[in-house]
Amino acid sequence: MPENIKILIADDHPVMRLGLSHLIKNEPGMQVVGIAANGTEAIQIAKTTHPDLIILDIDMPEMDGLSLAHHLKEELPQLKIVIFTAYHNEEAFNKAIDVGVQGFISKENVFDELSEGIRQVAQGRNYFSSVFSDYLLNRIKHDDKNRRSKQSIAEQLTPAEMRIMALIANMKTSQEIADALFISVKTVENHRTNICKKLNIKGKNSLLKFALNNKHQFE
What is the third-level CATH fold of 153-218? Predict the structure, then answer.
């Protein structure tokens, strides 16, 4: 963890910006290097001050917090991001984690959790307020279900069939698949039939729908 954690604050509410800055400045080993009122300002300040961590709200003008987080992760991949919000929404939570956000702190718990959350994230760990624990649990369950589903499909199909499913998921026709794998169209059709039997897929275009819905498992 840096001896002096350099922090950028991005929030569109003046009182919240002032309050966060005051709290952080009173914490040993922390330094506020910039304060932004919107996403555009946050990007400009981040590029010039090179903070270790940014605290940002989801609901901001010009660029919402999730878009800002995505942009910052592309431009400054080493920057650690903590969402600080009163906005409790599971979809937004999952999108933030997908973008690479390491912390999610509720404004309701600012006095109890802000300092600890900053320190944990600065050390490379994740930190989530307890109010988001159900969202995190649901995400873990969903990821585990996908993992088990992927294992199940991979266990049932041969490597050749997995390659064919990947091509189907990319909207390739049987002829295109045959050309790509240097096999006959008839062999491709036989593979498709076997895959449908193994995975119990029935109905016109059902194999294509299955491949599209599970595309990430064949990549």
Answer: Arc Repressor Mutant, subunit A (1.10.10)
